[in-house]
């Protein structure tokens, strides 16, 4: 599956999935612009002439504009965008969630996706082509108790992606949402209750909830992102792809 000469902007590139997505896209021949509020983990890709990292808080409108401007200056046409930035929620009863915390989760998981898609649309409409992959969560389809704010933010990502798919279809811009199952990154342990043994929770609660019997790896997610960005997925838009080992069933 080749992405030769395609340029893809990856938000959350410094995270567990983001890093694997960057690697998979580079391997498929794409130019990749990896942006994150912290790009330290991307140092292994530095020096690659088809890779550029940008450290930015993507909740800042101007920063998002700058990311796309730099990507376009460096590589020309922007063909794809992957929104893989996000924040977890510790399993918490609703009465203990402050309004600030609610807003923080909605902002990082949903508003940032909106800002990235809004900017992407400007560039992609000019080309009458493009593909956007928004990372949601299987918890939208199968919620867990105590994750009400996170689940709401990811449900918003799903609805938003479908609405945008319809809006951008006349411009031949595809928008899809990928719902990962429990994936072995730093974030996974952050869903556990305060004081819980994170390794134990990962192996029991999360792994045991996956019918195929394994936690997802970031590479599992990256392969499906690569597919959705490729020409092989050109007639897929407004879709929800669960990459979850059967967790959503
Ligand atoms: N790990 C899982 O089990 C799991 C399951 C379902 C969905 N997801 C979703 O997958 C995506 C990737 O998760 P991950 O497991 O790689 O998590 P991660 O914590 O490893 O990565 C998230 C990245 O988002 C970045 N980020 C946060 N706020 C930012 C901001 N304001 N500006 C720029 N970057 C910012 C962080 O710096 C981090 O690098 C997230 O949207 C997450 O909600 C994860």
Automatic annotation (TrEMBL):
<dbReference type="GO" id="GO:0016491">
    <property type="term" value="F:oxidoreductase activity"/>
</dbReference>
<protein>
    <submittedName>
        <fullName>3-oxoacyl-[acyl-carrier protein] reductase</fullName>
    </submittedName>
</protein>
<keyword id="KW-0560">Oxidoreductase</keyword>
<dbReference type="Pfam" id="PF13561">
    <property type="entry name" value="adh_short_C2"/>
</dbReference>
<dbReference type="InterPro" id="IPR020904">
    <property type="entry name" value="Sc_DH/Rdtase_CS"/>
</dbReference>
<dbReference type="InterPro" id="IPR002347">
    <property type="entry name" value="SDR_fam"/>
</dbReference>
<dbReference type="InterPro" id="IPR036291">
    <property type="entry name" value="NAD(P)-bd_dom_sf"/>
</dbReference>
<comment type="similarity">
    <text>Belongs to the short-chain dehydrogenases/reductases (SDR) family.</text>
</comment>
<dbReference type="GO" id="GO:0008206">
    <property type="term" value="P:bile acid metabolic process"/>
</dbReference>
